[in-house]
Design brief:
seven-stranded mixed beta sheet; single chain; Rossmann fold; Transporter substrate-binding domain-containing protein; about 35% helix; alpha/beta; AmiC_PBP1; Peripla_BP_I; globular; five-stranded parallel beta sheet
Length: about 400
């Protein structure tokens, strides 16, 4: 056992309006820390310095300042929202720390104090729209929590739709944690979109999906088979909370428990043994888990936890982790990821003990990060429309280029 102990911050909200995904992130990081500490691959151990900002954006900076200052952390694994990430940037600059940000986000950022191991736009919203729009139509209703994630994801959606001569029938926002959504349901009833792009998070999203489910039960024109909800952040972690209202939602993630790739079955079995069979393994868990393993390998290779040394060596390293290899792009500090797309199905439909995702693009390929969408066009963005869609519809104009130019 080594005497060398390296403190690292673990900063996720375990309480508050989006605490379900916060607890997943916390558990993912803590599980990986325990595995690293038990491994004989490393000549050090991690000491977790954990804190709960309780979904209050201003608390992230306060707690990060303490971690990087008095607690002597050099690295922080954490943050669930872009709001909280933005709050941390001045703190990271002041202390020259490094944030490992592992959730999907809206892109248009590349900061030298952040490693972005979650999906950016060309790895989430772009492949999602490319897969789904030809089968369901191009008339969208856009929803978002009232902060940068909702604003920017819907802005990108508008541009993708405009490139295909689509239409936005409504764009509405609610405050984080707000569950008063009857006005959204009423407007959707009036406009009758082809699909809904849902960028609400936490309690707001759960309330909306439950209300939409009731609407679909009353009028089949609003059922998930006819008018699906698309998401870039719904994962297995939230399905037990939402219940049947989640069925039919089509979501994209860089990891799904049901994805068939090397070593995933063994990893899922280990996590089920650790956490219980009824709990799904989600991207919100595996993102921080993978980040901790990558950080440990970088420190072992360069012999130092110094953030600048770690950051500079990351792009040169193979970073195999129990969830799959991680590759960091030097120019953007974002990860190469696979944009899996899945539809939520019931436990009965899956023959399982819990609801989960059926893959719509099981042969998805890894995509290099393009956070500013500078390379996005029909030739550079590879797509796969071969998977059968829930609607059974044929794609519109299959020979037509899907995406043209996005700012």
């Amino acid at each position: 056992m080594t005497d060398r102990v390296i403190p690292i911050g673990v900063l996720f909200s375990s309480t508050g309006s989006y605490s379900v995904i916060g607890r997943e992130g916390h558990e993912g990081a803590m599980t990986a820390i325990a595995e690293v500490n038990a491994s004989d691959l490393f000549d050090f151990t991690f000491e977790a310095v954990a804190a709960d900002p309780a979904c209050r954006a201003e608390q992230y900076a306060v707690l990060a300042n303490r971690m990087l200052g008095q607690d002597r952390c050099r690295h922080i694994i954490g943050c669930q929202t872009s709001w909280s990430r933005k709050e941390l940037l001045p703190v990271l600059e002041r202390h020259q720390g490094l944030l490992w940000y592992s959730v999907p986000y809206e892109g248009f950022e590349s900061h030298d104090r952040v490693i972005y191991s979650g999906a950016c736009p060309n790895q989430n919203v772009v492949p999602l729209f490319a897969q789904i729009l030809p089968h369901y139509g191009k008339r969208a209703f856009l929803l978002g929590s009232n902060y940068i994630w909702g604003w920017e994801m819907n802005r990108i959606a508008r541009e993708l739709l405009a490139a295909e001569d689509g239409a936005v029938l409504g764009e509405r926002y609610v405050a984080l944690g707000d569950v008063e959504i009857d006005h959204l349901i009423a407007e959707i009833c009036d406009t009758r979109p082809d699909f809904i792009f849902n960028n609400l998070i936490g309690d707001s999203s759960y309330a909306f999906l439950r209300a939409l489910r009731r609407l679909g039960e009353a009028d089949p024109a609003f059922s998930a088979d006819v008018m699906p909800v698309l998401s870039c952040n719904l994962t297995e972690a939230e399905l037990p909370i939402i219940g049947k209202a989640a069925e039919g939602v089509i979501s994209t993630a860089s990891y799904f428990e049901s994805a068939a790739y090397p070593k995933n079955r063994e990893f899922v079995q280990r996590m089920h043994a650790l956490r219980g069979r009824s709990r799904g393994v989600s991207a919100m868990f595996t993102g921080p888990y993978q980040a901790v393993w990558a950080l440990a390998q970088a420190i072992q290779t360069c012999g130092s936890p110094d953030p600048d040394i770690v950051r500079d060596i990351l792009p040169t390293l193979p970073l195999p982790t129990p969830v799959g290899d991680l590759t960091i792009d030097r120019s953007t500090q974002h990860a190469t990821l696979t944009p899996f797309i899945g539809v939520v199905e019931s436990a009965e439909a899956l023959g399982d003990v819990k609801a989960g995702f059926r893959m719509l693009n099981p042969q998805a390929r890894r995509l290099a990060p393009d956070p500013y969408l500078v390379n996005l066009n029909a030739e550079r963005q590879e797509r796969d429309f071969a998977a059968p869609m829930r609607s059974g519809k044929e794609p519109d104009e299959p020979g037509r280029s899907f995406l043209r130019v996005v700012k």
